[in-house]
Write a structure and sequence with these properties.
This protein is α/β, with parallel strands linked by helices and 331 residues long. The protein has two domains: 5-203, Spore Coat Polysaccharide Biosynthesis Protein SpsA, Chain A (Alpha-Beta Complex), CATH 3.90.550; 204-331, no CATH class. 47% of the residues lie in helices and 16% in strands. The chain has helices at 15-26, 46-50, 66-76, 95-105, 126-141, 158-164, 175-183, 205-216, 219-228, 239-251, 260-272, 274-284, 289-313; strands at residues 5-11, 34-39, 56-59, 81-85, 89-91, 109-116, 144-146, 153-157, 188-199. Helix 2 (46-50) links the parallel strand 2 and strand 3. The model is unreliable at 317-331 (pLDDT under 50).
Length: 331
Amino acid sequence: MPPSVSVVIPAHNCARTLAACLDSVYAQTCRIHEVIVVDDGSTDRTAEVARGYPCTLIRGDGNRGVSAARNTGIAAASGDVLFFLDSDEALTPDSVANALEILAADPACGCVHGVIAPDPLFDDGPVEHYKVLHAHWWRAKGVGAVETAFFAQAAVPRRVFDHLGGFDERLRDSEDLEFSDRLAPHYRIVLTDRIVARHDEEHRIGPLLAETFRRALLLVPALRSARRGGRSNLTANTPASVATAALLLATLPFAFWYPLLPVAALLAFCAANAGLLGFVARHRGPWFVPFFVGVHLLTHTALLTGAALGAVRTPGGAPSRRTAPETEVGR
């Protein structure tokens, strides 16, 4: 008899995307035992949208964050496998079935999670195209056994939570990394391209850069902590990409006297991202590449600025479990 599946969807002010998310769940090729939507203090029509579906709606006490919402869903779920899905994502029809197949074939696997599709859930313009293309690329490159789990679209056997406990409710960001620290020593983690979700990403450049900066504030202490623990996190940007971006920024003040310096640094940055830019050209067309490079440089600038400020604030320190950032630079 196949395991029963509880789909847990934490939801906060997601009226725009929740219907598409739920439609994708009810269109799965395998039977879903139950769908639980945890409304984490929404002030829009999120609850109203959820009530239009045969799901269980749990309304939380205020906006407590995604960790608390997922834990509420875990406590209410009765399935053998919990499939976590963010409310701004929509799964391909065979994603849950593929997750169950991978878990059944590997009893040591404690989490199987998927990739972001290269096209957004709703098309809101070129900044969003940049974000989903980059997100798809770095996750797809890491397919296989990994030491980091992301729970935007992930299946976890209930026994794992019985063993390790739930998500750290003090965390509103990067709860994935904290849980991965507890998960990886005991279970295999698998990243697969057989679980795919279209994501409604940020489509405005200002908020995108602000989010990158905020997540980078504790990047340096997070990397130190990971190395001390002997872990190697899945990461969004390679050291070569970050280093060449830093080189380009360093050469800009000398551009008037030595214009070839920033040009050479820009070419080095493009070379460091050659695989990514080739993927972008194939998927969106060569015309999109210059725009992609420009936004990629801006996000690297926000990343480097945040990381530098964070390093000054916490020299030699380890990141707090309250604020551990999403890792933005790779090995």
